[in-house]
Amino acid sequence: MRILVTGATGTLGRAVVPALVRRGHQVRAMSRREREGTDVTWVRGDLASGNGVRQAARDCDAIVHLATQARRGSERMDVAGTLTLVSAAREARVSHLLYVSPVGADRVPTGLPRHKFEAERVIRGSGLGHTVLRTTHYHQWLDRLLRRLAGLPAIPVDPSVPWQPIDTAEVAARLGGLLADGPRGETLEFGGPQVLGTDELVRTWLRAHRSRRLCVRVRYPGKLIAAQRAGALTTDATPLGRISWADYLCPPMPLSDDFAVEHTASPTSPANQPEGDPDLRVYGGDEGYQRQTRK
Ligand SMILES: NC(=O)c1ccc[n+]([C@@H]2O[C@H](COP(=O)([O-])OP(=O)(O)OC[C@H]3O[C@@H](n4cnc5c(N)ncnc54)[C@H](OP(=O)(O)O)[C@@H]3O)[C@@H](O)[C@H]2O)c1
């Protein structure tokens, strides 16, 4: 499939582009800046001004729309920019528009979530084949946020705020699967495997980074945080992601190549003793039986 990815340079886009290439798709990656790459065709496009968007969508079978403007200008970018993209997609007769939005977009009538919900409505009303996937916060985004907070004299922690972080690699894989399924005309949710309070989230992060940075208990302000505190940004929709926050921060060691050999009980182990016949019992050291299996 020929697929245009908007937001290809973002937190999620950096996982989605290589995942789609690995699946054998021809990927056209959009950015506002000039870029070069070998596996993908980079195109310049700006959803706020509309420059380059039509050309970017031309001849594409599908669009994965990830571009967003989280700080300032989310209305102009996320809502008006999505309208611009929809009109380019119609012109190009794109058969599937796949949009990523945050969990809670429908429950938090303020700021970025409100604009994301409006953009979802633009997509649902576009008449195009579409799927909307709402996700919880990304490990990679939270990790960056905590790195910034760790630069402060103390990390502010509000234990009453829950998070359900998910890995961008798993979201990328899910998007690949949704593209293969074709447009579902549905809005789906995809969250991480665990809901963690900010205190546990930060504690795990500090442990992983062997940091003793001081933490200070606070109450985070704002309407969005109040909604998050009430659970509006978490989901119990299944399937959930499988990579936990702790696994993302400290990935389990890969199993060694001789895993099977190491797991085979030695001839002298209790597991290999012939039942009921003490004469056939094999005596000797059993060191292989409990050998450590991870390097
Ligand atoms: N981050 C999270 O934890 C999280 C959680 C849930 C849902 N989401 C959703 O996931 C999607 C991807 O988010 P993300 O975190 O990957 O975003 P991000 O890291 O903030 O990246 C934003 C992307 O949007 C592009 N962009 C910004 N303004 C643009 C414009 N005017 N025209 C064209 N492209 C523009 C940027 O590309 P250039 O700068 O290269 O032009 C960049 O690639 C969004 O829909 C977001 O709401 C994110």
Automatic annotation (TrEMBL):
Residue span(s) of domain NAD(P)-binding: 7-139
Gene Ontology terms for molecular function: protein-containing complex binding
UniProt xrefs under Pfam families: NAD_binding_10
Record's protein name: Epimerase
Region (Disordered): 260-295
Cited PANTHER family: NADH DEHYDROGENASE [UBIQUINONE] 1 ALPHA SUBCOMPLEX SUBUNIT 9, MITOCHONDRIAL, NADH-UBIQUINONE OXIDOREDUCTASE 39 KDA SUBUNIT-RELATED
Domain of life: Bacteria
